[in-house]
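worker-03 picked up job from queue 'complexes'. Input manifest follows; two sequence lines, order preserved.
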Amino acid sequence: MHMFSSNEDFERMIKNLNIDREAPPGHRQELRRQMLAAFAEARSREGLETAWRVRLKGMSIMRNWTIRVAAAVLIVGVIGAGVYWLKGTQSIAFADVVRAIADTRTATFKSTTVPGKGMPAMHFDGIYADPGRMCMVSSQGTVILDSQQGKLTNIIPSLKRVMVVTSKNMPPDAESPNFFETLRTRLQKAEAQGGKNVTALGRKEINGRGVVGYRVKIADDDVITIWADAETKLPVTVEVTTGSVVNTMTDIVLGAAVDEKLFDPQIPKDYAVQEMVIDMSPPTEADLIDLLKTWASHMGGKFPDKIRQSMFEDFSKAQGQAFKDSGREPAMEDIAPLQKLILSMTRGLRFYMELPKGSAKHYAGKGVKLNTPDTPIFWYRPEKSETYRVIYADLTVKDMPPDQLPKSQQDEEDQRQSQ
Amino acid sequence: MSEMQAETKTTSNIDDIVVRARTDPQALGSLYDRYYDRVFRYCLHRLFVKEVAADVTSSVFLSVATHIRDFEGATEDDFRNWMYAISTRQADAWIRSTKRRDELLKAAAMSGRLKVARESHCEPEQAVEWSWLYRAIARLKPKHQTLIALRFFEDVPYEQIARILHSKPASLRVMTVRVLDKLRRLLEKSQPGKAGDAHV
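worker-03 finished. Artifact:
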């Protein structure tokens, strides 16, 4: 038998091997189809997560410092460049821009969304039509929003699948999930407030067109930057930065002819339809308890280290790993219940995140196991209450005066009162 | 256009495809077409049984499809390294259990016996059998198996293997000498008629 004596000899030996390297017939094509379907599915989940990130604005979604800094530099740069200011005519011009957007019954545009740091951009063509309807067409499929019916329909041709998400208990003052409608409402509010949160950015050129810019501050981490044609006052680009999510609209056409069929498409009979309901009523303490219980029962009996937006990514990964550990990849039938579970958990996160600063909330569940006796894991002071609500590891809740709180919280309470 | 310019342009185009593949299914499809053979071949060299290699290749590309949005590389080199790293993890995971390793070795042994009977007309210099070599390689540590597969079967330079295995090229060169020495001893021990060959 031949034996090698050096690296080169071994290389020659490998080259002389007679190995049949042909893949099994049909494997290449079948795997290609499966891979692209898995990609579409992942993108679909990602879209849903993004929609939630936008809705949960102001929460711990500030991961993309790079984009925030870049946006700030851009704005400062434009101002610093010394392009001239439209002093005296600024508020009138802004009102013109707002009126053009507010009065239109239809609009078409291209949209690019960057969900966060290092995350790939998502592109779609947007078609808006009164009342409150929007169709978003991308390479992955079509999403149709109807804010009056509180309904989102996601059609994914590569998976032959339709996802219908219906919202219930939407508060009357809640912002529409329809991006264009929300933009319109916000601009109108800013204009009605006398433009106090509007900053003129001056004049510049975009693709040879003279444009004027305005920055509208909705909140510290929620800013709209709009550039409109200096002559017609019609919008040319609109950038909405909500936390780490940056959405840019270009190629905007107001009053465009729109095909009504776009908003009521015929779903092919062989498409699977998955329906989900989102409860949009104000979240409660019970939702937080449900979140903690669900987490612990799916994550080895322990409570989460922290309560934050990214916990759902950790949760998804852990569930995916659990499937792999059991010797198989999660199938689409496994993903739907997981999506529902995560959607229900987001209510608990909303409750936690929306507690005001004065609530002195404190989470102490890291490393604690479900049903550990006499162990408080979370406490907060409800508005106008003298006592705290304390949630224990067995998920019971007690009212507790400040002087009986765990020590670390007592210190904070003393500090709060001394201030 | 000079050859260098053409090559630079091609590389740049593929780099563009790598970046676009995070969001664009067409770009991902192009990368799949470009890398399917390479990944299957690597899995085959690591796992011997064609059907197993196909299964693990599937796991690799399905993993790529679900994680590519988190892939931070921007060049084809980055993507290639990422593919090899995923393939290595998946292959290692497959053979991790003793039971599965035994399955592979039995398949190699069976294949070898059949081949000896069928291909006895081969010239002595070409008589090295893949099944015989695989059985010896399979006795190495997983990291050493990966090193042999990448360096000698896939012709990957040490610098690139170092990035895939989070090691240093110089360390890998030294390691290769030691691993080949061990492999040589394993092969000598397992030559027909010698102890250690009969049972796998």
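worker-03 released lock.
The interface with chain B takes residues 1-5, 7, 10-11, 13-14, 16-21, 23-24, 27-28, 31-32, 34-36, 38-43, 46, 118-123, 139-140, 158, 329 of chain A (CB under 8 Å).
Chain A is about 35% helix and 25% strand.
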